[in-house]
Amino acid sequence: MTLQTLTQTPEAPEAGAARSLFTVRDLRLSFPDLARKPLLGPAPRTEVLKGLSFDIPAGQITGIVGESGSGKSTAGRVLVRLLGPDSGSVLYDGQDIGHLDEAALRPLRRDLQMIFQDPMSSLNPRHKVWRIIAQPLKRYGLGGTKADAIAALGKVGLPPAFAERYPHELSGGQRQRVGIARAIALKPRFILADEIVSGLDVSSQAQVLLLLKQLAREMGLTIAFISHDLSVIRHLCDRVIVLNRGEIVEQGPVAQVFRAPVSEVTRTLLAAIPLPELDAGWLD
Amino acid sequence: MTGSQTHPNTLDVMQLNIALPNGHRLLRDVSLSLRPGEVRVLVGESGAGKSMIGKAVLGILPQNLKVTEGEILLEGQHLNAMTPWTRRKTVAQSAALIPQDPLTALNPARRIGPQITDPLVRIHGWSRTKARETALALLDRVHIRDPKRVMESYPHELSGGMRQRVLIAAAFAPSPRLIVADEPTTALDVTVQKQILRLIRELQQETATAVLFVTHDMGVVAKVSQQVTVLFAGKVMEDAPTERIFTDPRHPYTRALIAATPSYADLDRPFSPVPQALIAELQDDIVRDDARHQGGAR
């Protein structure tokens, strides 16, 4: 695994150059605000996504960034259809999956995988690692033997011995690798990675990022990578979408957005990141 | 850095060792000092023992951990020599904690107000009125818009950033000489993190409070501290002024930690995890150290 792969991010091709795996237009979503619900009658709705339009190019890593409450996780969850939109279209490979019911979604589920922020709560604590990875494989009729699980572990750089461990016996970084192994074992077309390194310390974070980048390249994966850390996005992603209060304030190839951010929100997010270098005036 | 009689330092930790009951050392001969108004960062990966040092100073180590050797001096007073009761009193008088997770640090069933004022009344012997006035003034100082309302609120009614502000106000209220800040911004968003870091620095500078700041983020290290202690497996790898850590890091582990921190501004700088070979080498050193330490103890 080379360091250079992550350091020298190739310039992303301009929009339109790559085929879009997702084409999202005017995506709107609201949740009922139960805190303000009257005794009788429906709760007023809070608009979380206010008309998002964006593309996720195939074979690229798209970063989605914003503060807490900006709607970045909600938008991601619509892509993998854990949530359905109120209105707007979500074209996946040309097909509008926004309003499909569960039965119609079932054939797509395998292709749309997710890696979660907190690996402790997303790995069954009573199952050994190999079963955690093998169960979805079995579910989709793709095998599901211990050997399959060990092969997936190998891809994320964990030795076969880890197959017999339980999640609590792993470090945070190792758990997150298991989460990645479970997702990639299904050979999906798309992975949603929601804040997957924010719970890790620096060295594990760097390992997981390098791994994800390498796997994306080897397997031709399309990834949406949600994060609040623009440094991580800059190193990992080809494109970035900046969200603020449910609206897209900026999107484009990372090199362009970082060189000349047009939105005040992007500039604020950039200025908030403590870079590992001396800067006496940063906190003033 | 000796334990001289005229104590200019707020905190001296000397050759501190902490071990499990089975004798396994978790902290290995850690020494550090903190002058009034100084911020020293303890940085390292999880398990390096950085939080443990803060807990040892405050006397809130888990029960199964014991200080086996070493001295902790708070404003020149030997904490180890004190009875538990005197020690608790001394520490409560002059030190405070800003914890990592503001939600677990606040009692969910009680309003914010008494959670700030109770210690001021009970430990510091203030009047209710004085405690309340100080709390209101400090909440205002930490940029909480409606301090009176927040005093009446329950923790769940506040956002993460607000809760952390409340805890910062509570920590600074009794004008402590030392504050232990244990990853106070890890649970927060980057923009909120910056506000909180700024706030801690403002208050700390106004009151010349010494801060022992625990973090794993080399970016935060660069922005908040004057002195840095780099820890690996409970052992000090490097102890240096912050400026030197970033201009001329001497220990390979320090350099590796900096290289593992991503930076959007400097893509030419290598970005890589701490190399396994370095970790193995450092662990070998520690095994040798421990063997020698055991041999010496017998």
TrEMBL record, chain A:
Identify the domain of life: Bacteria
Give the UniProt keywords, A-Z.
ATP-binding, Nucleotide-binding, Transport
Pfam families attached to this UniProt entry: ABC_tran (PF00005)
UniProt cross-references to SMART domains, sorted A to Z: AAA
Which stretches make up the ABC transporter domain? Answer: 29-270
- Which InterPro entries is this protein grouped with? AAA+_ATPase, ABC_transp_ATP-bind, ABC_transporter-like_ATP-bd, ABC_transporter-like_CS, P-loop_NTPase
Task: Give the matching SUPFAM superfamilies.
Answer: P-loop containing nucleoside triphosphate hydrolases (SSF52540)
PROSITE patterns assigned to the protein according to its UniProt record, in alphabetical order? ABC_TRANSPORTER_1, ABC_TRANSPORTER_2
Enumerate the GO terms in the molecular function aspect: ATP binding; ATP hydrolysis activity
Which GO biological process annotations does it have?
transmembrane transport
Mind telling me which PANTHER family this protein's record contains?
A: D,D-DIPEPTIDE TRANSPORT ATP-BINDING PROTEIN DDPF-RELATED, TRANSPORT ATP-BINDING PROTEIN
Q: Which family does it belong to?
A: Belongs to the ABC transporter superfamily.
Q: What name appears for this protein in its UniProt entry?
A: Peptide/nickel transport system ATP-binding protein
Q: Which organism is it from?
A: Alloyangia pacifica
UniProtKB/TrEMBL annotation, chain B:
GO molecular function: any one? ATP binding
Q: How does it sit in the membrane?
A: Peripheral membrane protein
Q: Which domain of life is it from?
A: Bacteria
Q: Where is the ABC transporter domain?
A: 11-258
A GO CC annotation recorded here is: plasma membrane
Q: Name one GO biological process term.
A: peptide transport
Protein name as annotated: Peptide/nickel transport system ATP-binding protein
> Source taxonomy lineage?
Bacteria, Pseudomonadati, Pseudomonadota, Alphaproteobacteria, Rhodobacterales
Spell out the Pfam families in the cross-references: ABC_tran (PF00005), oligo_HPY (PF08352)
The family annotation for this protein states: Belongs to the ABC transporter superfamily.
Establish whether keyword Nucleotide-binding is in the entry. Answer: yes
Protein source organism: Alloyangia pacifica
List residues traversing the bilayer. Answer: none
Q: Which InterPro entries match?
A: AAA+_ATPase, ABC_Ni/Peptide_Import, ABC_transporter-like_ATP-bd, ABC_transporter-like_CS, Oligopep_ABC_C, P-loop_NTPase
SMART domains, per the entry: AAA
Under PANTHER family, the record lists: ATPASE AAA-TYPE CORE DOMAIN-CONTAINING PROTEIN, OLIGOPEPTIDE TRANSPORT ATP-BINDING PROTEIN APPD
Keyword terms, alphabetized: ATP-binding, Cell inner membrane, Cell membrane, Membrane, Nucleotide-binding, Translocase, Transport
Localization, UniProt: Cell inner membrane
